[in-house]
Amino acid sequence: MGRTLAEKVWEQHVVRRAEGEPDLLYIDLHLVHEVTSPQAFDGLRMAGRPVRRPELTIATEDHNVPTVLGPISDPVSRTQVETLRKNCAEFGIRLHPMGDAGQGVVHIIGPQFGLTQPGMTIVCGDSHTSTHGAFGGIAFGIGTSEVEHVLATQTLPAYRPKTMAIEVAGELPVGVTAKDLILAIIAKIGTGGGQGHIVEYRGEAVRKLSMEGRMTVCNMSIEAGARAGMIAPDETTFAYLKGRPHAPEGEEWDRAVEYWKSLRTDDDAVFDTVVEIDASTLTPFVTWGTNPGQGVPLGAVVPSPEEFDDPVARSAAERALAYMGLSAGTPLREVAVDTVFVGSCTNGRIEDLRAAAEILRGRTVVTRTLIVPGSMQVKKAAEAEGLDDVFRAAGAEWREAGCSMCLGMNPDTLAPGERSASTSNRNFEGRQGKGGRTHLVSPAVAAATAVTGRLTAPADL
Amino acid sequence: MEAFTTHTGRAVPLRRSNVDTDQIIPAVWLKQVSRTGFEKGLFSAWREDPGFVLNDPAYEGASVLVSGPDFGTGSSREHAVWALQQYGFRVVIAARFGDIFRNNSTKMGLLPVVLPGETVEAIQAAVEADPALEVTVDLAERQVRWAGEAAGFEIDDYTRWRLMEGLDDIGLTLRAEDDISEYENGRQSWLPTTV
Fold first, then answer.
1. Nearest-CB residue to B107 (from A54, A83, A145)
2. Residue B40 to residues A14, A90, A320, B157: CA-CA distances in angstroms?
3. CB under 8 Å to B165, separation ≥6 — which residues?
4. CB proximity under 8 Å: A 247-266 to B
5. CA–CA separation, A120 and A31 (whole Å)
6. CB A4 within 8 A of CB A139
7. Residue in B34, B107, B183 nearest the CB of A26
8. Judged by CB atoms within 8 Å, which residues 12-51 of A form the interface with B?
9. Which chain B residue is nearest to residue A159, measuring alpha carbons?
10. For a pLDDT cut of 70, what percent of chain A falls above it?
11. SS3 for A292?
């Protein structure tokens, strides 16, 4: 019987296998940021252990950083960032600090440098590590104990998850993006639908996505509960990688590509679970609730809790509507928004900014609108194209790189009761600031919403 | 890690689903660089509601959390586990857990117990009827016992052994150092380094 892509990559990384034990898996790349690493470095120090492979490790500052120029004013945040600097210096780890040209959100900089490549195992103390699976590797989030484990041993003990195929047939209609696709997938299978699985996204619509679109899809695999998400590498992947600073060169490139081409699910391989979705029927998608599975097409109305047969889902919907300040039956298009956020590891890359700029060109925003590039390099690229001028002319704020309003750890937050349309990945209670209400959308929908002040699809303008 | 063999304590019913780790410990608490003091942040937004179950004096001192399905979804923050432990919980019972949270728990010695939804509800109902009721979670027997009832749960042998012995994962892995070095010698030559 053939093997799935996930099985091939997994097997390639098994250091040790013993009956009745988890596999010991080698880790090719470890991404580190300031929030989930300090206690791990402390653990190493207490045990007198070095970092086994500092040259397979890279660090950046992202979660705490302010997105306006200047120092970190919150002393607790500042201490955390300074702690990372001290740890990286002590253990010999490459760090891209605030202000550095290579700084950015951890999941933006890996692919940007060409460090994220097909067939690799990549981990980070951050659940959105699933992003890197877009290149055809196994990438997943870990906790601080595991961060310490990888620092000390460059391995992780783990049981191989089950495999799930999400087959996306047909083509996405014009105006429907990778973000709409993944939001629709999560709404279909639920926040627990992928639990215990590595998902492989397959099918025509996935093949036609750009690398950045693929990253958006894989990024939110965790919101469907999956351990990781991946897409088989192809010419789109190779073209994206070629010439990047850490991509192989010359003969090494040819050998690598030859191997990467073998990284696809065999025709006779069997997945543990198969989900099918028709891309051609999709429309712009938006969440109405407080978990990423609570989403509907933008043209729909806020659902009624009575529509849910499962009592657990019904009570979750009741609670979500109360928190979100929404009534069942309200058209989503009538929901007024205070703040629009374009950015994050989900949608902070150059194509996302282009999509937002296309809508905002020659228009004016009526909401507070934050446009936050995912990295300093994305910022530079956007400015070279003049996108910053488009944003400023529309009345939006053009910021420095960071996680920004994706999570309430830096100055960019919602006030209690404030409502956002956000291109980030989580609409949990309080995620963007205590009492804040989040609607997850694509960059195009976010920009259109900024123009009207209500949840709006670009086609509505 | 503190070894876990069997634990008996009072339980708190948390009748909510999709208890994501942002609720267990909001992001503002993650700025600490130490491993202690997270109990203050546990469910800190929900605890502002006087009606929240953890504010009910009847459940004070409980050490078993009995939650609705999909507990610990979302962010990988291990701080969620530290917060639960430092508040006094030794066990969380739910029908489903987020994968990363479950992993983090077993690294720290907080036992995640998966039981069918109806069994979880039966325990919640029993505890609501009598908050003084004690629940025993027996890892050796892989069994939860309460009010004369019992339910078995599954956990793989290796994780159970590690929890019962209170073993440090890194120490175990370093016993395989020769295997790691051998693997490293055979890695593909084009794989990137960060230098």
1. A145
2. 40, 31, 25, 34
3. B3
4. 247-248, 252-253, 255-256, 259
5. 13
6. no
7. B183
8. 15-16, 20-22, 24, 26, 28-29, 35-36, 38-39, 42, 47, 49
9. B156
10. 100
11. coil
The model's pTM is: 0.97
CB pairs below 8 Å between A and B: how many?
A: 205
The strand pairing partners of A421, in sequence order, are A340, A439
Whether residue A222 and residue B74 make contact (CB cut-off 8 A), yes or no, is: yes
| DSSP per-residue string spanning chain B | ----SEEEEEEEEE--S-B-HHHHS-GGGGG--SS--GGGGTTTTGGGSTTSGGG-GGGTT--EEEE-SSBT-S---THHHHHHHHHT--EEEES-B-HHHHHHHHHHTPEEEE--HHHHHHHHHHHHH-TT-EEEEETTTTEEEETTEEEE----HHHHHHHHHT--HHHHHHTTHHHHHHHHHTS-TT-----
Q: What percent of chain A clears pLDDT 90, i.e. is strictly above it?
A: 100
Tell me which residue has tokens 């088989």.
A232
Q: Are A57 and A93 in contact (CB under 8 A)?
A: yes
Distance from CA of A358 to the nearest CA of B (A): 32
Q: Chain A residues with CB inside 8 Å of B18's CB?
A: 191, 290-291, 316
Would you state the pLDDT for residue B2?
86
Collect all residues of chain B within an 8 Å Cβ-Cβ radius of residue A29: 192, 194
Per-residue model confidence (pLDDT) at position A181: 98
Q: What is the pLDDT of residues A153-212, one digit of tens each?
A: 999 999 999 999 999 999 999 999 999 999 999 999 999 999 999 999 999 999 999 999
Residue A421 tokens, joined: 């349309």
Residue B195, chain A, CB below 8 Å: the answer is yes
A146 contacts on B by Cβ (under 8 Å): 103-104, 107
Residue A99, number of CB atoms within 10 A of its CB:
11
Inter-chain CB proximity B104 and A143 less than 8 Å: yes
> Chain B contact for A186, CB < 8 A?
no
Give the single-character DSSP code of A394. Answer: H
pLDDT (tens digit per residue) in A55-114:
999 999 999 999 999 999 999 999 999 999 999 999 999 999 999 999 999 999 999 999
Please, which residues bridge with residue A357 across strands? none
Reported ipTM: 0.96
Q: Give the whole-angstrom CA distance, residue A293 versus residue A259.
A: 36
Q: Write out the two tokens for B194.
A: 């960060």
Q: How far apart are CA A411 and CA A320, in angstroms?
A: 25
